[in-house]
Amino acid sequence: MSQSNQILEYLREGNSITPLSALQLFGCFRLGARIFDLKRSGHKIKEEDVRMDGKRFAKYSLDKVSV
Prior knowledge:
The chain is of the alpha+beta class. It has a single domain, classed as Arc Repressor Mutant, subunit A, CATH 1.10.10. The chain contains three helices and two strands. Helix 1 (3-12) packs across helix 3. The mean pLDDT is 94.
């Protein structure tokens, strides 16, 4: 199963994903690119900017409308 499909399935289960969790769970170094691919395929994915310990990163989840 491709990384994009693994990530999509993970999001469909109601989870959100960050770059660090994508790396740990799926060995995915380029989460933004996989999210772009999923969006281009028509999936409604929302992005939230998170700030923690002086760092900023994106957290992605599946828009409830598209489930």
